[in-house]
Amino acid sequence: MNLENRAAIVTGGAQGIGEAVCLRLAREGAHVLVADNQPQKARQVSDEIASMGNRSSSMEVDVSVKQSVEEMVDNTLKLFGKIDILVNAAGIFISSPIEDIKEEDWDRVIAINLKGTFLCSQIAGKEMIKQKNGNIVNVSSIAGKYPAIYSGAYSPSKAGVLLLTQMMAVEWAKHGIRVNAVCPGPTDTAMIRDAFDSEERLNRRKKAIPLNRFATSDEIAGAVFYLCSDEAGFVTGESLVIDGGSIKSMFYLMEQLRESG
């Protein structure tokens, strides 16, 4: 197995993309700390990993709070003795037009999506620097590459994650640490279903994707696994787009509009 005996932390690991990443890394041989603000769900994921024969634990973590992140890293070191992989998958989405964004919503999204990625990377990164190796994968979004209307602070937060990824990749390369990001398009998770108020709107969104469907969490997890693996050993500072052709689809959308009359 490609990741045999490697120690991983996955934030946001209790559901959606984070859960799929936990299970994929475990299937590839990694031991996984499942970190999330939903402790019961995180424990269920950890139990499933343990049933595969891997070491695993879970803990309640607020990635926007430094002390909570420090405890997460300390726990991982006590459990596994090292940190080989960090996947920053914790994230939230609060929809709003710009003129109506509430300050507290802006602050919360930035705190989880951007500050959380920074804190987890900084604190785990210090241990990786001591080890002289490590691998960080940040879950950004195509909304971090192009503006997603009515996404409130989500698009800016994910754009920040992409630039932070590049900064860490360049600064930490000398320590043997690789840092990359994945940029999922619409993925079939609770987050995207909560963002649409009807099945009709959800289906219209699917039709705007050239592959005519949403990604699965397992497909995103596969991309994360690749970036964590030795096959990506010379890849750093990159953002891998997994979006079914969405951000290349301007002319596809124009044709869709023409056909619909």
Question: Could you walk me through the main structural features you see in this protein, from its secondary elements to its overall organization?
Answer:
This protein has 261 residues and is an alpha/beta fold. It has a single domain (7-199, 215-246), classed as Rossmann fold (3-Layer(aba) Sandwich). Helices cover 48% and strands 15% of the residues. The chain is built from 9 helices and 7 strands, in the order E-H-E-H-E-H-E-H-E-H-E-H-H-H-E-H. It has helices spanning 16-27, 39-51, 66-80, 103-131, 154-172, 190-195, 199-207, 217-228, 250-259; strands at residues 7-11, 31-36, 56-60, 85-88, 134-139, 177-184, 239-242. The protein has a 7-stranded parallel β-sheet, sandwiched between helices. Helix 4 (103-131) links the parallel strand 4 and strand 5. Helix 1 packs parallel to helix 2 (39-51), helix 1 packs across helix 8 and helix 3 packs parallel to helix 4. The model has no long low-confidence stretch (mean pLDDT 93).
Which labels suit this protein?
261 residues; alpha/beta; globular
Present the secondary structure layout.
Layout: E1 7-11, H1 16-27, E2 31-36, H2 39-51, E3 56-60, H3 66-80, E4 85-88, H4 103-131, E5 134-139, H5 154-172, E6 177-184, H6 190-195, H7 199-207, H8 217-228, E7 239-242, H9 250-259
Parallel strand pairs: 1-2, 1-4, 2-3, 4-5, 5-6, 6-7
